[in-house]
Design brief:
The chain has about 140 residues and is an alpha+beta fold. The chain has helices at about 15-20, 25-40, 95-100, 120-140; strands at about 45, 50-55, 55-60, 65-70, 70-75, 80-85, 105, 110. It has one domain: Aspartate Aminotransferase, domain 1, CATH 3.90.1150. Strands 1-2-5-6-8-7 form a six-stranded antiparallel β-sheet, with helices on one face. About 25% of the residues are buried.
């Protein structure tokens, strides 16, 4: 079985974000870090070389594959900032309608910049996604 590549690292989130070349994207990522830390009450940690994550959980698939992942996070990609809303978007369709300019794929929400979206809606999605995942983890552990 292949080893998991995206794991927590000791790299400083602040140092990583300083490497984001686009000033608008860097500032948005700093704001997202603060926003997500306040919402999750978790310290930001680098996951792999490019994901800022908050909280963690262990998973195991029926195939036997297991690993660990962040509960919420984001990554400043070249085309857009990818936000990881772990439960996906099935229960967030009304939020997405109100959010503003975005794209989704799997559990990723892609935004070009924070000014393109309604931050109140975004915060609500992060808060609810984090809470939903934490509740799902508790159910599995019981």
């Amino acid at each position: 079985m292949a080893e998991q590549k995206t794991l927590p690292t000791k790299v400083s989130v602040e140092q990583f974000l300083k490497t984001v070349e686009d000033e608008t994207k860097r500032n948005d990522c700093l704001k997202l870090t603060d926003m997500m830390q306040k919402i999750t009450k978790e310290k930001p940690i680098m996951w792999g070389p490019a994901i800022v994550g908050f909280g963690s959980y262990k998973y195991k698939y029926s195939s036997g594959h297991e690993g660990v992942s962040c509960i919420a996070g984001f990554s400043p990609r070249k085309a857009a900032i990818a936000l990881y809303i772990v439960p996906g978007f099935k229960n967030y369709q009304e939020h997405l309608k109100k959010l503003g300019k975005h794209k989704t794929s799997g559990s990723c929400l892609h935004i070009k910049k924070l000014s393109d979206v309604d931050e109140t809606v975004l915060k609500e999605m992060i808060r609810e996604g984090y809470k939903d995942k934490k509740e799902a983890i508790k159910k599995v552990q019981v």
